[in-house]
Each structure stands twice: as structure tokens, then as C-alpha cells.
Amino acid sequence: MKSEAAAITDSATAAATAAADAAIFAGPAALLDAAGALWVEAGSVIALRAARIGQGDPGAGDEMVRMVAEKVWAGWELGFALAWGQLGHDPSTVFSRTLKHYRRAVQANFDRLSANER
User: Fold this and answer.
1) Which region, left, alpha or beta, applies to residue 88 given φ > 0 means left and ψ of -120 to 50 means alpha?
2) Model confidence pLDDT, tens digit, residues 52-96
């Protein structure tokens, strides 16, 4: 059975994802909406991780190591993509591609962590 926290984060993440997907290339306001959606999605992942760690889950130590390693790796990937011009050249393109880069990682973490809640 799905916990109440997982159900709440599922619905918040689904709404944020739909809004961000629909608006990512539509202009400055849409980029801010997409950034807000990433913020909501990341908060959902933080809540799921905090619950796992707080409950004393046997895999909590591995989750903490994974969390730090993912952040370092995502930063390196983004840095190299920026250096090689893969993110584009105008600010809005760089911003939207940066959001997409981080949203992929956040969504994968949400899917993995919420699957454990079910």
C-alpha cells in the first residue's frame, strides 16, 4: 500500500512535470514556471529521501552516498556540456537545457524512490 506521503508527492510531482513539459520553450515566464516545477520535484525527492533516512532504512547509508555522488556527477556533466557548447549559446536555451538536464535526474530519483514506497 502506498503511504500518504508518497501519494502527496506523486500528485505534486505529476502537476509540476506537466506544467514544465508544456512550457519549457515558451519564453521567460515559462522558464520560471519550469524552474518552479523542478523546485517542487526536487522537494518531493528530498522528502522521500528524508523519510527513508529517518526511518532507519538499511539502505539509508547507501542512499546518502548515492545522493552526493549524483550531485557531483550532474555538475560535472553540465559543466562539460556547457564547455563544449552543447547547451546552446543564448541564455534562454542554456537555461532550458540546464533545467531539462536536472529534471531528468530528479525524475529518475523520484521514480526509483517512490517505487519503494508502493
Assistant:
1) left
2) 999 988 888 999 999 999 999 999 999 999 999 999 998 888 998
Q: What is the mean pLDDT of residues 7-21?
A: 57
Those residues whose C-beta lies under 8 Å from the C-beta of residue 107, and which sit 6 or more positions away, are: 13, 17, 41
The C-alpha cell 512550457 sits at 23
User: Which among 48, 36, 30, 51 has a CA at the least distance from the CA of 103?
Assistant: 36
CB 48 within 8 A of CB 9: yes
